[in-house]
Design a protein that fits this description.
Elements lengths: L2 H5 L16 E3 L9 E4 L12 H6 L4 E4 L9 E3 L3 H12 L8 E6 L4 H14 L4 E4 L4 E3 L2 E3 L8 H13 L4 E5 L2 H5 L10 E4 L7 H4 L2 H13 L11 E5 L4 H8 L3 E6 L6 E8 L4 E7 L2 E7 L4 H16 L4 H10 L8 E2 L7 E5 L4 H14 L4 E5 L9 H12 L2 E4 L9 H9 L7 E2 L3 H11 L5 E5 L6 E4 L2 E4 L2 H10 L2
Parallel strand pairs: 1-2, 2-3, 3-4, 5-9, 5-10, 6-9, 10-11, 11-12, 12-13, 17-21, 18-19, 18-21, 19-20
Antiparallel strand pairs: 6-7, 7-8, 13-14, 14-15, 16-17, 22-23
Helix pairs in contact: 3-5, 4-10, 4-11, 8-9, 10-11, 12-13, 13-14, 15-16
The protein binds ligand UAG, adenosine-5'-triphosphate, 2,6-diaminopimelic acid (API) and magnesium ion (MG).
Length: about 475
Amino acid sequence: MKLHTLLKSIPLINLPDNNPEITSIVNNHRQVKPGSLFICITGHVFDGHAFAKEAVDKGAVAILSERILDLDIPVIVVKDTTRAMAILADSFYGNPTQKLHLIGITGTNGKTTTSHLIETIFREYKKVTGLIGTIYMKIGDRTIETKNTTPDSLVLQSVFHDMVNEKVDTAIMEVSSHALVQGRVNGCDYDVAIFTNLTQDHLDYHHTMEEYRLAKSLLFSKLGNSYNKNKKFAILNADDEATKKFVVETSAHIVTYGIDSPSDFMASDIILENSGTRFTLHTPEGKKDISLRLMGKFNIYNALASIAAAYVSDIPLELIIQAIEKATGVPGRFESVNGGQDFSVIVDYAHTPDSLENVLKTIQQFAKKRIFSIVGCGGDRDPSKRPLMAGIACKYSTDPIFTSDNPRSEDPMSILEDMEKGALGKYQIIPDRKLAINTAIQSASDGDVVLIAGKGHETYQIIGDEVFDFDDRLVALMAIKER
Ligand SMILES: CC(=O)N[C@H]1[C@@H](OP(=O)(O)OP(=O)(O)OC[C@H]2O[C@@H](n3ccc(=O)[nH]c3=O)[C@H](O)[C@@H]2O)O[C@H](CO)[C@@H](O)[C@@H]1O[C@H](C)C(=O)N[C@@H](C)C(=O)N[C@H](CCC(=O)O)C(=O)O
Ligand SMILES: Nc1ncnc2c1ncn2[C@@H]1O[C@H](COP(=O)(O)OP(=O)(O)OP(=O)(O)O)[C@@H](O)[C@H]1O
Ligand SMILES: N[C@H](CCC[C@H](N)C(=O)O)C(=O)O
Ligand SMILES: [Mg+2]
């Protein structure tokens, strides 16, 4: 695509005299090839402008920058390169989201689970699906590795482009609050936007709960503002306080779901069982008894949101119910580890106070004796959640063990000290995660439950700058075998 054609998508921009052919757009100088447009991003760690010269040496033919740079190729200056990048990426890849039925999910907890449930329903309806989220990106059955829950706009639009080429009909994606604030999803034309819930997390980045809520609200306030006149739907959790604000911030058609508040899709007569949940589903088409293979009340919310999203996407209710009843768990979410032991071992991705409380309350329903909870808090992440998570582990388990969960650049002992400030009663501190898991598994006996929280599907432990292989499920299995 010619540079001038590409730049037309940014209103009122000054076109440079030269009009080279742009063969790729990149924001990391290592990815520059002859013909690239290199976008300089002012990041949280690096200033991409510092790599502009190296980009030219590697063959970049134009630079998008936030300041004038003295280079021999066209330098286009804009106020905010990150936001301009999203517009250019959308244009460069042929506005792919306008060709997809796009479902976005935001909220503190439940995005990954809900996205997988929706994927299951659409696949049952024989749709070709795309998925973008924490665990991986998927085009049909093909999985693609990912670093962020919501990738940057260049990766995002290029994956959407591949989805269009590979005949994907519906794309389902998790939309993190970081992505909304950083404009990673600008240019995405959502048809359905889902809100799961808002509880404490990421206050290191968003500072206050209101700022965090406003980040989430961007998904809804922008919904319905595109040129695409298809009907847009905001699917909102009626039991969450934030919904009251979102309803006045969107021009989309509102559909609600909930358990306690009157809503379009409701669950009543809930029975929580050891192998799943049962409830009566209320829909605009009447009532139906449902049996889910997923445990915990929180998963009923995820199921309701998924059912509503499929319903507004014109999938017949009967088929939606059939599919949701078949849906099995998501990797690392309430995943049982079975090595023939006479107690339960559960690996779960709970890394916020609310999710930890939900999971431990669910475990309390079936634990016959002791509950061991192995809990840590990530380094370089919201420190204010640390004492809260420790307090919850102490409140809902008999044997809390505090350990490390991706300490990153922080000293593991200082993270544990932050956790201890919220601890109550007796607890153990075992900084080495493997030792913490081994200790719990060696001590557990018939009828006990061992919860290993925080890392779920992760297969690594980040200590300093190093990434070590570490999979809670494999470590637990090994410990069970060694008993
Ligand atoms: C704090 C934060 O959100 N950072 C994100 C941000 O990075 P950044 O733009 O600040 O990047 P940077 O590393 O400072 O680099 C600046 C620029 O220099 C370029 N560069 C840099 C080095 C070099 O040698 N050459 C070079 O060209 C980089 O490519 C970049 O363009 O933009 C990047 C691209 O989108 C993200 O990958 C990165 O996520 C980091 C890795 C991260 O850990 N983010 C977490 C907090 C996050 O975003 N989490 C949410 C999920 C949260 C949840 O829901 O629980 C997520 O969506 O993943
Ligand atoms: N609807 C829900 N409400 C509260 N907690 C939930 C809900 N769904 C799942 N959880 C808990 O939160 C954990 C994370 O769930 P999930 O991965 O679906 O959320 P997420 O929003 O994608 O998280 P992340 O932002 O880290 O990607 C689960 O392991 C479970 O403990
Ligand atoms: N998306 C979350 C994942 C946290 C997972 C936990 N294991 C940690 O490393 O803190 C984050 O980046 O904050
Ligand atoms: Mg997720």
